[in-house]
Each structure stands twice: as C-alpha cells, then as structure tokens.
Amino acid sequence: MMTGEERRAFIIEQIRGSGKPISGTKLAEACEVSRQVIVQDIALIRASGYDIMSTNRGYVIQERQSFRRIFKVQHTEEQVEEEMNAIVDLGGKIISVRVNHRVYGRMEAEMNIGSRKKVQEFLEDIRNGKSSPLMKITSNYHYHEIEAESEEILDEIEAMLEAKGMLIR
Predict the structure, then answer these.
(1) Helices vs. strands in the chain: H and E counts, helices first
(2) pTM of the predicted model over 0.90
C-alpha cells in the first residue's frame, strides 16, 4: 500500500503520462483507494503548485514552465515598494519572504505577489498597521523566492537588484 506522498506522486505521473484526461475512478482503482481520497489528493497536489484541471472526462495537468531563484537582499523600509515593483515589472512573482533570526531561526511567509496591484495591497496592509515587514527583525536582511517564466528574467531581476544596491552576495 502506498503512502499519501507516494500516491500523489503516482497520480501526477499518471495524469502527465496519459496524454488525455484520466478519470478519478481509474486513479482510485489504480491506487486501491476511494474516489474521495483521490479528490482530496488532487486538492493537495493543486495546493503544492500543480495546475490540474477537472474536465468532464477526467483530470488533466496544465504544464507551465517556471523557474525559481532565492535572492538575499537588504534595503530600507522606504525601498520596499521600489524593490517589489521592480521585480514584478520585470516579470517576476514574489513567492515568499524569509529571514534567518539568530534566536527564532528561519521564519518564512508566503507572499505570491505578481503585480503592482498586489504590491499596493500588501503595502496598504503594512501602512494600516496590520503588521510590519519581516525584514525589520533582522536589520533589513531578508530573502525572496522569486518565480519567473525564464532564467533570463531571473537574471534581469538579479542585475536590477544589484544595480540598486539591494542584492547581497
């Protein structure tokens, strides 16, 4: 019997390799679990970043090539908007922010900011006092995981951060 993790890897492999929609019933039979378990697994697979669509004939996966890179940066709180807008303007999506605190250890927050509109919403939440930027607890040092459609876009983002004096090597 497969573990949940093994079953989800098997489901992804089956949907990818099928070349056509594959029904939940077929997946359930192949995994020797109920259809409901497959539905729950599909939800977990989607949450982990796979673009799986349900059709009237079964599940299909939308393969979208993306690349990710982690950048270590430091800048002032006043430069947050400039940094984030520059990243999204070049085609990047800010997946997360992370700090390495000497006492608390690694702290990470999901962001998923890929547009100027989302940047403004984030900044508005900060201005309204809902919270403060995570970077404040580590003398403005922090890491961003950035996603883009190509390595070239990530290279452009890296060059821009370096040109602005924000990139730490």
Answers:
(1) 6, 6
(2) no
